[in-house]
Specification:
Number of strands of chain B: 2
Strand content of chain B: under 5%
Shape of chain B: globular
Oligomer: heterodimer
Order of helices and strands of chain A: HHHHHEHHEEEEEEEE
Largest sheet of chain A: 5 strands, mixed, barrel
Strand order of the largest sheet of chain A: 2-3-4-8-5
CATH topology of the largest domain in chain A: OB fold (Dihydrolipoamide Acetyltransferase, E2P)
Distance between the termini of chain A: 49 Å
CATH class of the largest domain in chain A: Mainly Beta
Number of strands of chain A: 9
Largest interface: A-B, 71 and 69 residues
Strand content of chain A: 15-25%
Chain lengths: 281, 318
């Protein structure tokens, strides 16, 4: 029994953790959970855990730490503690790995509070998103709107679809609403963007608005914040709540409650497959 | 809308993301701790310290930069170091400082707070951790070690004075592990053993912490807790209490703290400074070495001190 606790339980735990980490990394699922910066750490940790597990399996001397009177592992010294450690370490991660989806549901997004104003992200540094990397127009001497030739140059930098629509992410429109020079890049232009459909219960007096939501991640999914652009559509969409949709329409920035907000007047709304990376960075 | 709506898939998604982000740092800390445990004899640590007692205490607060150690490991290590002759005040300073003033903690804090003033948070965390450890070290210097240490610890240590400091020096022979006599392969085995055991022991608390953080992040309506998060006083107290209960490892706690997006900077700082120096797990670990009155005094003193400092920092609105 002692041999089981000392040697094989840690070996099994480390093997399981290493296998889960490597499975998520090599299957590409890790992209839904972590910012690219942190993903190599999962690969390294997974490999290291398998090495440690192998050391427990093949080096019997490794297992004896918690029999030493100097051992500082309070749980490791008791049989009950060892079993409890094993259960806590294995069951939650194994269960979560089996049942975890690739993104959050509507309840969690609602609990976190959907951000439709980039000021709600002030703790985060504005960064170019994964889908667009837009160079802002060159500044003018008096800080006013850029000259037409500058705007045309900036327009050429914007990524476009085959139909000529400017491809944007939700977060681009939110930052554009706060920044006049960025706004000029998008205002009254045909844009296309994807996200998840959520009803708008806040600023929807005429009943033709809904939210297009994306999660904006800085480190991992746990810190991701839901950001949304408002979509106005005269045609009722039959897409289900939280389904992935592509919206093509005209970007506008009307002033509401004293501040400009991003509203896309939709020409078409179509249900699409989720993108390869569901989060924005 | 209800204040609490638990949905398992969302919980699992958040829980796994916290684990995936924190595990590499936890493993890195455990490996460094294991290597130090196996390859660094206690006398190497004492060699670094100057003869001047005050300077020795100050330097002990920085030893974590060279000998990084998580809070669980540092309690074990100082017991060994005290036997080897490290002055008690220096040992306590190292015990409190090493879990915060360390390159692993600096790295993980900067990474976790990416986009949330990482440089300011990391610098303040390390600076406050160092100052608090040194302050406690100076206080301990003026308390006889017979009043601080458990009787069973004192029994193994014939007390004596050196360089004006009360120390507890034992012969090298009572060390259960003689690092000088171990072969290289034995040291490797011991390093793997210590790293694995440290990792599994601390991962236990990290999993529990990640469960609580994931529940908080997904199930609780953030609008409900907004009043708590917007009050500097309440948010700091709440986060310190949370740090005490969660008992996270200092190499990964920043990932949990950073995920409490509604809480202000000062409250997260309080979490990150208080957690590594005192939590529910350390309450029991400290009790292995120190007398109960000292452990409770340490808890109360550190709680008040860190809360007051962070309240002052909250005024700066960082």
């Amino acid at each position: 029994m002692t041999k089981l606790f000392n040697r094989w339980l840690p070996c099994a735990t480390l093997s399981a953790w290493g296998a889960i980490l490597l499975a998520f990394y090599f299957s590409g699922k890790i992209a839904h959970f972590l910012h690219p910066t942190f993903r190599p750490g999962v690969l390294i940790a997974g490999c290291a855990m398998l090495v440690l597990a192998a050391s427990f399996a093949f080096l019997p001397g490794v297992a004896g730490c918690c029999d030493d009177e100097n051992c500082g592992h309070p749980l490791g010294r008791m049989t009950f503690g060892r079993v409890l450690t094993f259960l806590i370490l294995l069951i939650p991660i194994a269960t979560a790995a089996m049942f975890s989806p690739k993104n959050f549901g509507a309840t969690t997004i609602a609990n976190r509070g959907v951000i439709t104003d980039a000021q709600g992200l002030t703790a985060r540094a504005p960064q170019a998103t994964q889908s667009t990397s837009i160079e802002p127009p060159l500044p003018t001497k008096d800080g006013s709107q850029p000259a037409p030739e500058q705007a045309a140059a900036a327009d050429q930098l914007l990524p476009k679809s085959a139909e000529g629509n400017v491809k944007v992410a939700v977060i681009d429109l939110l930052y554009a609403a706060q920044d006049p020079s960025l706004r000029a890049d998008f205002e009254n232009k045909k844009v296309e963007l994807i996200g998840q459909l959520m009803p708008d219960n806040v600023s929807n007096a005429s009943g033709n608005r809904f939210k297009l939501v994306r999660m904006f991640m800085v480190c991992c999914a746990a810190d991701a914040r839901p950001v949304a652009a408002l979509i106005e559509s005269d045609k009722k969409t039959d897409a289900a709540e939280m389904s992935w949709i592509k919206v093509v329409g005209t970007a506008t920035f009307p002033i509401e409650s004293g501040r400009p907000i991003a509203v896309v007047k939709a020409d078409s709304v179509a249900v699409v497959d989720p993108p390869e990376e569901t989060m924005l960075y | 809308m209800s204040w609490f709506t638990f949905r398992f898939p969302d919980f699992a998604f958040s829980f796994l993301s916290i684990l995936f982000e924190g595990i590499p740092f936890l493993l890195l800390g455990s490996v460094i701790s294991g290597v130090i445990d196996a390859f660094v004899p206690a006398r190497v640590l004492t060699k670094f310290l100057p003869k001047n007692p005050n300077a020795a205490i100050v330097l002990s607060g920085l030893l974590g930069v060279i000998f990084p150690m998580c809070e669980c490991g540092s309690v074990v290590v100082i017991r060994r170091f005290i036997r080897k002759g490290l002055p008690l005040s220096c040992a306590v300073t190292y015990m409190l400082g090493a879990p915060i003033v360390s390159p692993v903690v600096a790295l993980s804090t900067a990474a976790a707070f990416r986009g949330q003033s990482p440089a300011v948070m990391t610098s303040l965390r390390l600076f406050l951790g160092f100052c608090i450890a040194v302050l406690v070290g100076f206080v301990v210097r003026f308390i006889p070690h017979e009043k601080l240490l458990q009787r069973k610890v004192i029994d193994t240590l014939p007390g004596q004075k050196r360089a004006g400091l009360r120390i507890a020096a034992g012969s090298a022979g009572d060390e259960p592990l003689n690092l000088d006599l171990d072969s290289f392969s034995q040291k490797i085995f011991r390093a793997i053993q210590a790293a694995s055991s440290d990792f599994l022991d601390v991962a236990f608390f990290f999993v529990i912490g990640a469960c609580i953080a994931a529940t908080f992040n997904t199930a609780i309506n953030q609008q409900i807790i907004l009043p708590l998060a917007t009050s500097p006083f309440l948010s700091i107290l709440a986060m310190m209490l949370l740090a005490f209960i969660l008992a996270l490892c200092s190499s990964t706690d920043a990932f949990i703290a950073a995920s409490f997006v509604t809480f202000p900077f000062a409250a997260k700082l309080a979490f990150l400074v208080f957690g590594p120096v005192f939590d529910v797990k350390l309450f029991f670990l400290y009790g292995v070495i120190f007398r109960r009155w000292f452990v409770i005094s340490l808890l109360v003193g550190l709680f008040i001190l860190i809360a007051v400092i962070c309240l002052r920092i909250a005024v700066l609105n960082l």
